[in-house]
inorganic diphosphatase
Amino acid sequence: MIKVVGHTNPDTDSICSALVAAEWLKAARDMEAVAMAQGEVTSETAFILKEAGVEAPAIVGNVAGEKVWLVDFTDLSQAPEGLSEAEIVGIVDHHRLGDITTVNPLEAWIWPVGCSCTILFNLFRMENIEITRPQAVLMLGAIVSDTVAFRSPTCTDKDRTAAKALAEIAGLDLCEFADQLLRVKTNLDGLSVTSLVDRDLKKYPFEEESLVVGQIEIASFEQVEDKIDELQAELTKRCAEDGLKLAALMVTNISTSTTRLLYQGEWSERLAEHAQAAGVLVMEDTMSRKKQAWPWLQTVLAS
Ligand SMILES: [Mn+2]
């Protein structure tokens, strides 16, 4: 049995890609596969699962000795426990290639598109496999989420084409569905400061050390104005507890495409010349961690 799994702090794409890839493996490769998750789903993902009528995947444990198929990541720092002793049989991903290695040849589909589900949509088409309504809803939800309704610079024509076709199969009005989804995505009501930091937190190795960069998406900065001090305190705590050189949180306003980066830790001084205030810098026209914030941070931190 192949365990299909996305990254830690799973976002919608990690959950939906795992569910859909498991079904694709059964249909296209005649392989036994089951979707797993590295954590509970967000309210945004729950909204999509409900529309699709699909249950959330079970939580994965240690995968040592298991066959594993990775979706939406290839970094060991985002992997389930035991991955280095597991057999990675395949990958579907749209991030930069990470640091995993394999013993055997594997089937890898890594495309520079806006969402792992866009690759899966094309794999269904390539293998002439019919896409069911639940699968279409899952893939559409992930594409709208990952591309922030096609506004992110990571979005490509392949994502738009896939979304259009999937909306048709799902019988959903694309604009209406995207509006609903963004409203759920940017609703932070009732979320603790800890869960805001954890929501989409990614760990990166850098100069033999570790740092984390999280991201939350909002419709207006007013939503977080009174939480900034608490968020900064939480980032400081992460540095101390997890031995990080930097803990950062991208607070991205999807209405204006502006990101405020909050950050704490020893390496904060490397960002000092860009700071707007202590531990805050503003990134204009920045929505994507993968394509904009993280490449920029790597350059600045290295210099
Ligand atoms: Mn993704």
Summary: The two ends are 46 Å apart (CA to CA). The pocket of manganese (II) ion is lined by residues 13, 72, 94, 115-116, 146 (CB under 6 Å).
